[in-house]
Amino acid sequence: VSPGDCWPLQGSQGQVVIRLPARVHLTAVTMQHIYKDVSPSGTVTSAPRDVAVFVSLCWALLGVDTDGEEETLLGTFMYNVAKEAIQTFPLKNATLPRAFSYIKLLVKSNWGNPAYTCIYRVQVHGKMANEAAAAAT
């Protein structure tokens, strides 16, 4: 992770939709930002602060109510710049019986930078749908 080598979002809010390699029963999300001492500006105000995690079976359904199908909120969390650069957040609604193909990170606020927000790394934790089914039998 190098300073400036991130997914930049314009402004203090934004979203990223990620297509997962398979349908996954999600359990947690890990987010990473750089440390203040390696930041060229000496600050980490561009780090996400308040984040919501949504999932869907179809990218087109994220945020759209179509035939009763819509995105599902799995949880919210606060990325804390005073803690470790890599932070893992368990998803509260991870006990859903469905596996999902898409995840949306909705950044509701950052740590004060009005121009942009940077996401350096996102990791998704869970079990692929076929692994979970095999474990249940």
TrEMBL record:
Molecular-function GO terms, alphabetical: protein-membrane adaptor activity
Domain SUN: 1-129
UniProt KW keywords: Membrane, Transmembrane, Transmembrane helix
Signal sequence residues: none
Keyword check for tRNA processing: no
PANTHER family xref list: SAD1/UNC-84-LIKE PROTEIN-RELATED, SUN DOMAIN-CONTAINING PROTEIN 3
Name of the featured protein: SPAG4 protein
